Amino acid sequence: MPDGSKSKAKGGTPAALFLLEHGIDFEVHEFQHDAGERNFGAVAAAALRVDPDRVFKTLLANVDHLPPADVVVGIVPVSAQLSLRELAAAFGVKRAEMCDPAVAQRITGYVVGGISPFGQRRLLPTAIDETCELHDTIFVSGGKRGLDIELRPGDLVRALGAITADIAAWKPAK
Question: How far apart, in Å, are the Cα atoms of 111 and each of 13, 152, 163?
């Protein structure tokens, strides 16, 4: 179980500060991230020596007519892809498309590969893949590359006012 007291020694990102302010237990995990690496989630899973199904990536998508913003967050395991069709259905809209990375960075205040669901510039409608509930704890970005936060899935859902839905498109097994 994550221990919030350990988190105070490391992190210091808006994500960690958000969790501390909301009294959520979490643990910060730092790992080496090479500058040229692009598969951020797989690198995190390998470095942390955890099942990739427990490491979740935070992605932004543009959707049609969903006030207050036409941007939503989808959080899925790194072992899967985000199903834009299912994400749109989860929010009751017709269409979703991936947000341009530069726009995602501007909206969240984080760099790609370090976008945390917590501490973004504004709270966006968020859907988390329902498989998060299969694990006691999961990992999400802590707000910079090479920093992940471990916490209980229920705490993630509650802190963000998120919904859980079947939004992952699973990659074929190799």
Answer: 12, 24, 24
Check if the beta carbon of residue 89 is closer than 8 Å to that of residue 83.
no
- β-strands 80-82, 71-77: how paired? unpaired
Is 28 in contact with 7 (CB distance < 8 Å)?
Answer: yes
Specify whether the CB–CB gap between 162 and 128 falls below 8 A.
Answer: yes
Question: What are the structural domains, with CATH classification, of the chain?
Answer: 4-170 (3.90.960.10)
| 15 vs 61: CA distance, rounded Å | 20
Beta-strand relationship, 163-165 and 126-129: parallel
Angle at 129 between CA 47 and CA 169, to 5 degrees: 85
d(CA 92, CA 105): 25
Q: Which two tokens stand for residue 121?
A: 């510039």
Q: What is the pLDDT of residue 29?
A: 94
Length, in residues, of the chain? 174
- Residue 168, φ and ψ in degrees, nearest 5: -95, 140
Residues of the chain with pLDDT under 50: 1, 4-10
